[in-house]
Design goal:
The protein contains 17 helices and no strands. By secondary structure, the protein is mainly α.
Length: 358
């Protein structure tokens, strides 16, 4: 009898997703169906890593669209992106009967929304005025700066490794930004007589760095919201972000609809890609530690260089490549450190990599 029950249990585990969900729904109702679906998804190996790479793919396409629509202000583009985050989130919240603004988490949700919105507006400005790959590399340095704010707000350790890594990242950002007082004599950028292109690129780099600092705080807040369903986080984020970007575009007198034709299709794609990327990033951070997610998201830089060459016909200069290498190395070291910290204290590999734990 015991063997029969065991075989029955094994058959239940081997059922197709639809059969398993249907059986659970008939036996225990919608709640059991949700639990069965969650267990099935969670059983996929390295799910958080896969989600992080997919998130990088969709976010890189969103960045490309910002470059392909030069006639729409970056903040107005952000409004369309946030609409793509909010609208699909609402049906998910309703279907799951989630509280869209739960008590005890409201201030954190508002803080996450403000930080994320301000970060994205800054990043879109940078993408408009910098080469795609350069802006993406600076934005990609977020995990390195997370250590600073995790130390301040979460009281996490910030030792010699973090200090050295932050310095390495800043050196990479300087090479990419090429501030005029250091690189004015070099021909790294096209320089018209008024220097406008150079100035725009420099201030675009400043905006990218500011957006990165805001985004670093977003990572810290999302970890504090780990128990909430992604639809709750995204719906509150999208609603607040639309209000903030709408008021900003109104104040700048930049409210407009994109021209008829392919620009409007690109706006729809911007919304769709943003929603997909945001969902995948939020779920990746909920399924996996921040370190491995940071490593997987290095794919963002690779995608950005590919899109820049294929769609924009821009070949990156050697200074940008060196800066990108420094920043990418910093992020990868941060991810490897997080992975090493997750090993057993007696693991030989952890002992050999002692220098990453200083």
């Amino acid at each position: 009898m015991m063997a029969q029950r065991l075989r029955h249990t094994e058959m239940m585990e081997l059922e197709s997703p639809s059969e398993s969900e249907a059986r659970s729904g008939l036996e225990n109702g919608p709640a059991a169906t949700s639990r069965a679906s969650h267990r099935l998804i969670s059983s996929i190996p390295h799910l958080g890593i896969i989600m992080a790479i997919a998130s990088s793919f969709f976010f890189s396409l969103s960045s490309l669209i910002v470059k392909l629509v030069p006639d729409v202000h970056p903040v107005a583009l952000a409004t369309y992106r946030f609409a793509g985050i909010l609208l699909p989130s609402i049906p998910i919240v309703i279907r799951r009967s989630e509280d869209p603004f739960p008590k005890g988490k409201r201030w954190l949700l508002l803080l996450r929304a403000f930080l994320g919105t301000t970060s994205l507006m800054s990043q879109f400005y940078a993408l408009r005025h910098m080469p795609l790959a350069d802006a993406s590399v600076i934005i990609f340095s977020v995990p390195v700066f997370v250590a600073i704010f995790a130390r301040i707000f979460l009281k996490e350790e910030c030792g010699l490794f973090h200090v050295a890594n932050i310095i390495l990242t800043l050196c990479g950002c300087i090479l990419i930004a090429r501030p005029p007082f250091l690189f004015a004599s070099m021909d790294a950028l096209p320089l018209p007589e008024d220097g406008s292109v150079y100035d725009n690129a420099f201030w675009g780099a400043v905006a990218a760095l500011c957006g990165t600092l805001f985004a670093a705080n977003v990572y810290v807040v999302i970890r504090s919201l780990k128990g909430l369903h992604f639809s709750v986080i995204m719906s509150s984020f999208g609603a607040f972000a639309i209000l903030q970007t709408f008021m900003t575009t109104w104040a700048l007198n930049e409210l407009c609809l994109p021209a008829c034709g392919h620009d409007r299709y690109l706006m729809v794609l911007l919304a769709v890609f943003s929603f997909a990327g945001q969902i995948l990033l939020t779920m990746a951070l909920q399924h996996e530690q921040a370190g491995p997610v940071a490593i997987a998201r290095s794919a963002d830089v690779v995608f950005a260089f590919i899109w820049q060459v294929i769609f924009l016909n821009e070949i990156p200069g050697w200074i940008s490549l060196i800066g990108a290498l420094l920043v990418t190395t910093s992020v990868l070291l941060t991810g490897v450190r997080k992975w090493v910290e997750g090993l057993d204290s007696h693991d030989p590999l952890r002992q050999r990599l002692w220098f990453l734990q200083r």
